Amino acid sequence: MIRTTGSKLIPILVHIACILLLCFCFTPASLAADTEMQGISLKDVNNFTYRCPSAGELPDFVFKNGTFKLESASTDDPNNLTVANIINAAFGKLLPGEQQEAAVIFVYNGGGSGWFYELTVLTRRDGALKQLSCAALGDRVQVNAMEIKNNQIVLDMTTHGPDDPACCPTVRSTVRYVLDKDQLMEKQ
Fold first, then answer.
1. 15: Cβ–Cβ under 8 A, 6 or more apart, which residues?
2. What is the pLDDT of residue 75?
3. Contact 42, 89 (CB under 8 A)
4. Largest CA distance in the chain
5. What would the mean pLDDT of 155-183 be, rounded to a whole number?
6. 167-170 — which CB contacts under 8 Å span 24+ positions?
7. Which sign, positive or negative, has the C-alpha torsion 56, 72, 27, 94?
8. What is the pLDDT of residue 66?
9. pTM as predicted
10. Sign of the C-alpha dihedral, residues 44, 69, 52, 116?
């Protein structure tokens, strides 16, 4: 039997509460009903292996049904669990030609208090699903809406102002991304 002191138990309980919140609030069922455009489906989006350089030392995110979970070998570490969920997907044209792309947002926690939001783009090339690029949206931001319009990804977001605590962003803004040579670039 493993004995845990009260001071060690609190971070573990907080981490478990955050995981439960993520699993029940950000589920693939909350995604828009417009789920397939020219060969990319919501099933594809929810069952893909994503790689984002901004995630640092974390491994690839291998999603199954919109969820990723990885436990490290160390059971003594209260931050030994990495979780992620797909929270939004939009389908439309971002590149020249007939092909439609999928813009995908997922949120992950690699231990600790941060919840990091990533934007990425999927397309089909030679019949295979391919990830083009990834952009970090921030820690504990809010993505209120996303759409693909006029070859741009348009995000309605709430981000942190200079005096906002990490938990509570207050600055509402519209952020646009375009693809330039398969790389996501924020449009100013």
1. 78, 79, 81, 111
2. 59
3. yes
4. 61
5. 95
6. 167/140, 169/140, 169/141, 169/142
7. positive
8. 95
9. 0.78
10. positive
Q: Does residue 157 carry a pLDDT above 50?
A: yes
Task: Quote the pLDDT of residue 93.
Answer: 93
Tokens read off for 67: 């969820």
Specify the 3-state DSSP secondary structure of 3: coil
Q: What is the pLDDT of residue 85?
A: 95
Q: What pairs with residue 85 in β-bridges?
A: 67, 107
**The residue type at 130:** K
Which single residue is written with the structure tokens 């996501």?
184
**DSSP state string for 113-137:** S--EEEEEEEEEETTEEEEEEEEEE
Torsion 155-156-160-163 (CA) sign: positive
Q: Which residue spans within the chain are E strands per DSSP?
A: 36-37, 40-41, 49-50, 61-62, 67-71, 81-92, 101-109, 116-125, 128-139, 142-149, 152-159, 171-180, 183-187
pLDDT of res. 127: 87
